[in-house]
């Protein structure tokens, strides 16, 4: 007996789950879900079956066929990373029925009260299960090695609607007798309740389980795409304009990587508290509203999540120790899609921003170089705590290095073969490398595969980027230190990405007066593009410019995306005016905490605990 994943209790001696059937009753007044989960195993099992749970109350475990009780134990010890083990003792059984209740503090769920929504009249709840949070919704083998199909019945208030990263079957009235062990029949069939049914017929890793319930509307933007959001005309219309080019991106993705296997590619724009830029849930990508910038540049985030449809969702890392197989491949695929749809210069700027982020991430881990490796060890480590640009950008650099060695046509053929060979499978780095060497003979003699995957830092054959626009932006940024501000004619054509790249390359040692002058001329704190605003505020904090404390506080209170929370809270606790800025960081988090998703709460708490 041995765990198959450092972040899961799933044991090598246990058969893996291949199907889950869920019944979920949403109780908004208590911020809980009463549920039942029928788990079907790949083969009958005798002995202990280990499942992952976090903050769940387990009320019963039954044999699915006979409905007779099965012995179970929820471990009294709570691991701070993995949660609790649910041990079920089986006797030649292959299917169990578990009833449970979630906690209001479930790490995967954010329950929003009406005042926290756009319309401020009805509540909202949504999931974020990556990396290891599906276990806080239902007991499962919460490892990407266990791919599952599932069906789900969501019982919600009639005035709300539900969406899932799955195929919608129907919306209907509750039926007597179907509540089973999920909840009391009177609750399930109460006046004012409806049931939304869904089915996911392709096997997915548990972290891609996703739903949202609220007052939702939608716009059609293509034959395979609807944009969903809270039912606010202005939000829906601007999102539809921003992502109008989605179908073209899907077509280009299919040309590059093969058939799109998921039927639909819908988008859900979530409230501002959503902790990521996007989450690649199959059939329905979840997005932060901060990607809606009014100039269609937010489509780059959509390109990344779309690319996951091939690399990440179709082929998945077996554990988080191989996370680069998801994100490095997807970053490469995203830039290929952007190159075709938005041009080579736009893709080059994307690479340039990534290069800067990668070098900063490697510097961040200078005291723990293990996490600068593509293939790393994560025993006893929370994956949310080590999330960085390394798997994305070093993974991209590795694949780009192979492409330069083989030539693009040959690498494109390899990619298509790789995807078709391993689709709907979870693999590790060794499997990829063996496939690479078998299909591109001699590649290990030209590219140091061991150094790239197991070495720390950045290999010498990594490559920044060659682009006249990128080179000029970096050069202009360096000149800012000696008082040279970009002229208005030089920035006339700049979009958010150009400003972001410029600001990130301005030396951190500039004077506060220079920073204020830059903002006075170009009004960067008024930008509707959070990438620009946050890049500027980081620069202001690093220069000790206290005049922007109020803008930093405002930003931290209006968005929950960790891409912005991490650098701003870190800059505050490490800032030039340390004591004053530490007090500000502590106060702002205390006031904004309830507006952040639980994952984001944990990340900010970790930052503050290290410095305060």
From TrEMBL:
<feature type="binding site">
    <location>
        <position position="327"/>
    </location>
    <ligand>
        <name>Zn(2+)</name>
    </ligand>
</feature>
<dbReference type="GO" id="GO:0008237">
    <property type="term" value="F:metallopeptidase activity"/>
</dbReference>
<dbReference type="InterPro" id="IPR001930">
    <property type="entry name" value="Peptidase_M1"/>
</dbReference>
<feature type="binding site">
    <location>
        <position position="304"/>
    </location>
    <ligand>
        <name>Zn(2+)</name>
    </ligand>
</feature>
<dbReference type="InterPro" id="IPR034015">
    <property type="entry name" value="M1_LTA4H"/>
</dbReference>
<comment type="similarity">
    <text>Belongs to the peptidase M1 family.</text>
</comment>
<dbReference type="Pfam" id="PF01433">
    <property type="entry name" value="Peptidase_M1"/>
</dbReference>
<dbReference type="Pfam" id="PF09127">
    <property type="entry name" value="Leuk-A4-hydro_C"/>
</dbReference>
<keyword id="KW-0645">Protease</keyword>
<keyword id="KW-0378">Hydrolase</keyword>
<dbReference type="InterPro" id="IPR042097">
    <property type="entry name" value="Aminopeptidase_N-like_N_sf"/>
</dbReference>
<dbReference type="InterPro" id="IPR038502">
    <property type="entry name" value="M1_LTA-4_hydro/amino_C_sf"/>
</dbReference>
<keyword id="KW-0482">Metalloprotease</keyword>
<feature type="binding site">
    <location>
        <begin position="561"/>
        <end position="563"/>
    </location>
    <ligand>
        <name>a peptide</name>
    </ligand>
</feature>
<keyword id="KW-0479">Metal-binding</keyword>
<feature type="domain" description="Peptidase M1 leukotriene A4 hydrolase/aminopeptidase C-terminal">
    <location>
        <begin position="468"/>
        <end position="608"/>
    </location>
</feature>
<feature type="binding site">
    <location>
        <position position="308"/>
    </location>
    <ligand>
        <name>Zn(2+)</name>
    </ligand>
</feature>
<dbReference type="InterPro" id="IPR049980">
    <property type="entry name" value="LTA4H_cat"/>
</dbReference>
<keyword id="KW-0963">Cytoplasm</keyword>
<feature type="active site" description="Proton acceptor">
    <location>
        <position position="305"/>
    </location>
</feature>
<protein>
    <recommendedName>
        <fullName>Peptidase M1 leukotriene A4 hydrolase/aminopeptidase C-terminal domain-containing protein</fullName>
    </recommendedName>
</protein>
<dbReference type="GO" id="GO:0005829">
    <property type="term" value="C:cytosol"/>
</dbReference>
<keyword id="KW-0862">Zinc</keyword>
<dbReference type="InterPro" id="IPR016024">
    <property type="entry name" value="ARM-type_fold"/>
</dbReference>
<feature type="binding site">
    <location>
        <begin position="128"/>
        <end position="130"/>
    </location>
    <ligand>
        <name>a peptide</name>
    </ligand>
</feature>
<dbReference type="InterPro" id="IPR027268">
    <property type="entry name" value="Peptidase_M4/M1_CTD_sf"/>
</dbReference>
<dbReference type="Pfam" id="PF17900">
    <property type="entry name" value="Peptidase_M1_N"/>
</dbReference>
<dbReference type="InterPro" id="IPR045357">
    <property type="entry name" value="Aminopeptidase_N-like_N"/>
</dbReference>
<feature type="binding site">
    <location>
        <begin position="275"/>
        <end position="280"/>
    </location>
    <ligand>
        <name>a peptide</name>
    </ligand>
</feature>
<feature type="active site" description="Proton donor">
    <location>
        <position position="392"/>
    </location>
</feature>
<dbReference type="InterPro" id="IPR014782">
    <property type="entry name" value="Peptidase_M1_dom"/>
</dbReference>
<dbReference type="InterPro" id="IPR015211">
    <property type="entry name" value="Peptidase_M1_C"/>
</dbReference>
<dbReference type="GO" id="GO:0008270">
    <property type="term" value="F:zinc ion binding"/>
</dbReference>
<dbReference type="GO" id="GO:0006508">
    <property type="term" value="P:proteolysis"/>
</dbReference>
């Amino acid at each position: 007996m041995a765990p198959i994943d450092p972040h899961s209790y799933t044991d090598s001696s246990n058969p893996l789950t291949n199907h889950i059937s869920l019944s979920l009753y949403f109780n908004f007044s208590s911020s809980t879900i009463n549920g039942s989960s029928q788990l079907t195993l790949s083969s009958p099992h005798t002995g202990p079956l280990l499942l992952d749970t976090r903050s769940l109350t387990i009320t019963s475990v039954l044999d699915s066929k006979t409905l007779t009780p099965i012995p179970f134990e929820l471990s009294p010890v709570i691991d701070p990373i993995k949660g609790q083990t649910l041990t079920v003792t089986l006797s030649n059984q292959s299917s169990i029925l578990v009833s449970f209740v979630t906690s209001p503090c479930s790490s995967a769920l954010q329950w929003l009260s009406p005042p926290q929504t756009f319309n401020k009249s009805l509540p909202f709840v949504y999931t974020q299960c990556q990396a290891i949070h599906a276990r806080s919704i239902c007991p499962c083998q919460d490892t990407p090695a266990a791919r599952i199909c599932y069906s789900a019945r969501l019982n919600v208030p009639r005035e709300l609607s539900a969406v899932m990263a799955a195929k919608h079957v129907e919306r209907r009235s509750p039926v007597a007798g179907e509540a089973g062990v999920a909840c009391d029949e009177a609750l399930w069939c109460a006046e004012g309740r409806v049931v939304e049914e869904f089915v996911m017929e392709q096997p997915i890793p548990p972290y891609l389980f996703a739903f949202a319930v609220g007052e939702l509307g939608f716009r059609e933007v293509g034959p395979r795409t609807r944009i969903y959001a809270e039912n606010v005309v202005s939000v829906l219309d601007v999102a539809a304009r921003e992502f109008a080019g989605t179908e073209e991106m899907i077509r280009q993705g299919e040309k590059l990587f093969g058939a799109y296997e998921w039927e639909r590619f819908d988008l859900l724009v979530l409230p501002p508290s959503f902790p990521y830029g996007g989450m690649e849930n199959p059939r329905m990508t979840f997005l932060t509203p901060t990607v809606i910038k009014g100039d269609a540049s937010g489509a780059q985030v959509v390109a990344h999540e779309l690319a996951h449809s091939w690399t990440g969702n179709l082929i998945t890392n077996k554990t988080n120790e191989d996370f680069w197989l998801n994100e490095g491949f997807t970053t490469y695929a995203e830039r290929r899609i952007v190159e075709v749809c938005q041009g080579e210069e736009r893709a080059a700027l994307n690479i340039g921003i990534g290069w800067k982020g990668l070098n900063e991430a490697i510097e961040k881990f200078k005291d723990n170089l293990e996490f600068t490796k593509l293939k790393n060890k994560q025993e006893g480590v929370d994956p949310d705590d080590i999330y960085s640009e390394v798997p994305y950008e070093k993974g991209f650099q590795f694949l780009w290095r192979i492409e330069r060695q083989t030539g693009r046509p040959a690498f494109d053929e390899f990619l298509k073969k790789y995807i078709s060979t391993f689709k709907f499978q979870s693999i590790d780095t060794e499997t990829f490398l063996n496939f690479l060497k078998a299909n591109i003979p001699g590649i290990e003699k030209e590219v140091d595969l061991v150094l790239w995957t197991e070495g720390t830092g950045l290999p010498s054959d990594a490559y920044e980027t060659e682009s006249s626009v990128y080179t000029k932006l970096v050069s202009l940024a360096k000149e800012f230190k000696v008082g040279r501000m970009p002229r208005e004619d030089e920035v006339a054509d700049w979009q958010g990405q150009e400003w972001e790249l410029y600001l990130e390359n301005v030396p951190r040692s500039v004077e506060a007066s220079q920073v204020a002058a830059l903002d006075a001329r170009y009004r960067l704190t008024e930008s509707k593009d959070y990438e620009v605003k946050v890049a500027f505020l980081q620069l202001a904090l690093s220069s000790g410019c206290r005049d922007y404390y109020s803008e930093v506080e405002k930003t931290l209170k209006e968005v929950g995306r960790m891409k912005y929370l991490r650098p701003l809270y870190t800059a505050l606790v490490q800032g030039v005016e340390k004591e004053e800025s530490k007090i500000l960081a502590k106060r702002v988090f205390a006031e904004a905490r309830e507006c952040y998703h639980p994952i984001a709460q944990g990340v900010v708490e970790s930052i503050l605990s290290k410095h305060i």
